[in-house]
Design brief:
Keywords: Ubiquinone. This protein is an all-beta fold and 160 residues long. Helices cover 0% and strands 54% of the residues.
Length: 160
């Protein structure tokens, strides 16, 4: 296992940036903080007003993944569906994504990197699934086409 982040005291919450549908006129709200228990807490409210409907938190990183096949996220969700998103190059517009559903308890979600497919603005992009050597950006997104509060607690993100 190779840890990408574990939200210890060396992790700065300012390195994680929230983005909502406000970039296109929506009114969703989100926040990211690192708690005193070393948990990355992504929370807020997704609104459908003004054609909105998503919230995301992203982080620039440098993770060499050539020798790894799986991304592992230890988290506690609220029973809702989310996406993990990665980019090998922050300059590309598309993300490689994988949806997952939380169960309300602490769990470790394991996703094969080769199963992550390209998306841009909600549309699948016709290119091969992720096969990069590096992960330079990682994100979590909620956008379930309904107005809802959300809370996603992140304990660690690793490669195996």
């Amino acid at each position: 296992m190779k840890t990408i982040t574990d939200f210890t005291s060396s992790t700065d919450s300012k390195e994680w940036h929230t983005i909502t549908d406000a970039v296109m006129g929506g009114v969703s709200k989100s926040n990211f903080e690192i708690t005193t228990d070393n948990i990355g807490l992504f929370s807020g409210y997704v609104s459908l007003k003004n054609n909105g409907g998503f919230a995301m938190v992203k982080h620039h990183t440098t993770a060499y993944c050539k020798d790894f096949t799986t991304i592992c996220i230890t988290l506690k969700g609220d029973g809702k569906a989310y996406q993990i998103r990665i980019k090998e190059n922050t300059a590309t517009k598309h993300w490689f994504i994988a949806p997952f559903t939380t169960n309300g308890d602490w769990q470790t979600i394991e996703i094969k990197l080769s199963n992550m497919y390209a998306m841009f603005r909600g549309n699948k992009v016709d290119i091969p699934n992720f096969n990069g050597d590096n992960i330079n950006e990682i994100a979590f997104l909620i956008g379930n086409k309904k107005a809802e509060d959300f809370k996603l607690e992140l304990k660690s993100i690793a490669l195996k």
